[in-house]
Design brief:
The protein is of the alpha+beta class. Helices cover 28% and strands 29% of the residues.
């Protein structure tokens, strides 16, 4: 076995990959601005583990210069140890003092491992846009010296008709203050993406590991979803023609991939401008999305990928039961 650095997407595409690994989109080396890609090769020259590294624009954290490890996959523990050891060494060589993973460069993209189930029985299958990984991968990070940085949760609401008596007084207060809530039905979704971008970059600026993302990259990331969006599940909160908050939900297309009817939708993002008089707007938007989903014939709603300390988790707690847990890891690098 040997660990090699890959210098281009073309060179990576030329390598055979072990059938034990999931498919890898080589184009992400370019469109996700990877700084370096490394592979652990087996005796026949096939890729048995791989990851990408980012350090030029990795998310900041405290006093550290961070590096991100993403695009991670490994066929077994031996190649995982060699790959992660090489990845940390490369980040050290680049002056990083902290490695974070799994993270495909920043929190706008895929990050976190699935590390546990909730209390729901039977366990729920993967939903659309949810991270997926074998249980070995987080253990490989832990054996390589990584420890928990943060935990995240997804929760399932199986009763969309359940009322929330707290919502209407809040909605009435917000309406008096000039806030109007409407769905995106009948609007230009491409134009709405640009408005959503500007709210997101302000609303998430204080989030753990926040990094700036250009409007161009943001829109490009969501363009692939436009034909799958149900505008009736995208709610916009506006005041004086300014977008001040939104909730973005999408049908669970993973059900269709399994050959089932789609009876579930996924609340992916809730974002509110940080104004004191908008307190409670997130809960109102989630309630409006769930009511709309119920009218559209959905039976269930997943509140997806919430940070353990975020207000979205408190909102979700009134409706939904935890179905999955995720972990993001860190390792301090001695220089």
């Amino acid at each position: 076995m040997r660990v090699v650095t890959i210098t281009s997407a073309r060179n990576r595409a030329a390598l055979a990959q072990s059938r034990e690994l999931p498919p890898f989109e080589v184009k992400h080396l370019d469109d996700q601005h990877v700084d370096e890609h490394i592979c652990a090769l087996g005796n026949e020259g096939e890729v048995r583990a791989h990851c990408s590294l980012w350090w030029r624009q990795a998310p900041p954290l405290s006093r550290h210069r961070t590096g991100a490890i993403g695009h991670y996959a490994s066929a077994d523990d031996t190649v995982a140890a060699a790959l992660l050891g090489a990845a940390v060494a490369r980040l050290r060589d680049r002056g990083c003092t902290l490695a974070i993973g799994p993270m495909d460069g920043n929190t706008w993209r895929r990050y976190r491992f699935v590390t546990g189930a909730g209390s729901l029985q039977p366990p729920q299958p993967r939903f659309f846009l949810e991270p997926v990984n074998p249980p070995d991968w987080p253990r490989q990070f832990e054996h390589a010296g990584f420890e928990k940085l943060a935990e995240y949760y997804s929760a399932l609401n199986s009763d969309l008709a359940r009322p929330d008596e707290r919502i209407e007084p809040v909605a009435a207060r917000l309406e008096v203050s000039g806030v109007r809530i409407r769905s995106a039905a009948g609007t230009d979704l491409h134009a709405q993406l640009k408005r959503i971008y500007h709210v997101s970059r302000i609303a998430f600026a204080r989030n753990l590991l926040y990094t700036e993302l250009s409007e161009e990259d943001f829109v490009a990331q969501y363009m692939g979803l436009l034909d799958r969006i149900r505008p009736e599940l995208l709610f916009l909160a506006e005041r004086d023609c300014e977008l001040v908050g939104f909730v973005f939900a999408i049908p669970d297309f993973a059900q269709a991939a399994r050959g089932s009817a789609i009876d579930t939708f996924v609340i992916k993002t809730v974002a509110i401008l940080p104004h004191a008089d908008l307190r409670g707007l997130g809960g109102v938007l989630v309630s409006r999305a769930q009511q709309a989903g119920h009218r559209l014939g959905f039976r269930r709603c997943i509140h997806a990928l919430m940070h353990e300390g975020n207000v979205s988790r408190r909102i979700s707690g009134h409706y939904a039961e935890t179905m999955r847990r995720y972990t993001l890891y860190r390792q301090e690098i001695a220089t």
